[in-house]
Amino acid sequence: MSDETVHDTVHEIEVRAPAEAVFALVADAARWPVHFPPSVHVERLEGDDRQERLRIWATANGEVKSWTSRRELDRAALRVTYRQEESRAPVRSMSGEWLLEPLGEERTLVRFTHSFTAVDDAPEHVEWIRRAIDTNTGSELEALRRGAEEADAGLTFSFDDSVRVDGSAKDAYEFIRAADRWTERLPHVARVVLTEDTPNEQILEMDTLTADGGTHTTRSVRVCFPAERIVYKQIRTPALMAAHTGEWIFEEDARGCTVTSRHTVRIEPDAVTSVLGPEADVAAARTMIREALGRNSTATLRCAAEHARRLSGAEPVPAETYVAVQQFYARQMRLLDERRAGQWAETFAEDGVFVQNTAPEPLRGREAVAEAVRRNLARTADAPEQRRHVFSMLTVVPGPDGSLSTRCYAQVLVTPAGGPTRLHLSAVCEDELVPHGDGWLVGHRRVEHDGV
Length: 452
What we know:
Layout: E1 7-15, H1 19-27, H2 32-35, E2 39-47, E3 51-60, E4 63-74, E5 79-86, E6 91-102, E7 108-118, H3 123-149, E8 156-165, H4 169-177, H5 182-185, E9 189-198, E10 201-209, E11 215-225, E12 229-236, E13 241-253, E14 256-267, H6 272-276, H7 282-311, H8 319-337, H9 341-345, E15 348-356, E16 363-364, H10 366-379, E17 385-398, E18 404-416, E19 422-436, E20 439-449
Parallel strand pairs: 15-20
Antiparallel strand pairs: 1-7, 2-3, 3-4, 4-5, 5-6, 6-7, 8-14, 9-10, 10-11, 11-12, 12-13, 13-14, 15-16, 17-18, 18-19, 19-20
Helix pairs in contact: 1-3, 4-7
């Protein structure tokens, strides 16, 4: 460690505001996502106004990174020092400070320093880190200057929408988390691209239909806390919003659960008249944003509530349907055990989707599913073992337009020559089965592997 090269950077900006006001913005890390473009979400894990331990999610060179940091806050000296406890590659270590120097009563010089080491001391890692620091620090300092110099004048505001759900918080959470299915489930969503390279850290790009029939495109980073909440920040916002952060909150009780959609918005003042007309003001922008975001979030909440209600089993399917679904899965699993990849893939719809929490991207379309299965089977072709795929603990509930929503436990048993049999994997499988002739095809499958 002592042989590693320590790299130092210094960035400065002059702010036309009292040093105490600037310090307040630096110190209040929970507000960073609203003010600092790279910051997505910050949580105080422990501490107080003098020292604290933070979990931080932010973007760096277009990637989502997260880490924990310790900070020491010295209000009298106008200094905040920090040290990353847990860094993400290519960063090996990172520390530094914010130092504020008063230049009279209404001006402050802000100095933001970084000292870092890179994984393996690799030049490409050093270059990546320097580029991220230069880009992020530049935008953060400019945002700090703007936030301290400009009176808020009602530009930042928050609001909530909530619904009661006659179902489980987990099912409502899964509806919101599985945003890749929103084009099927939400009438106001026209296009979705969802990526999840790191479990529970998502990038969501979405085209939303507006009340006048147009569309606007947003891009968000989402951090998922399973069955509890999903926080997000839009990194591509409509012109009227300088920043938009939010949170989906799932609170379960004895009678069901409450789901809340919380928004915090900072209006872009320079866009008010160009977007809403020459007579518009900030109050009109607040009203318009509140109505538009509230309309869409309420529609999403209601659909999530209906989804969770259906999955609660309040409307069981007829016994003959349940048996037919069991037979469908029995045939499907036998095809996989017998290594008939093409025939197994034919149990999926032409545009079927297969998602796993062990894979960063979904498989889209029957042919993509078939090719992936062929690759997996080829890897075990010479192994002297027998694999058995088992679906059990099946629940089936009716869906719209004759579809069915199913959930079951999925296990793979492996028996080598001479035994014994061992459990290879355990998962939960959730399907949407779409009608096809006298039976069904898999329109969408999500497999959540245990232990991931």
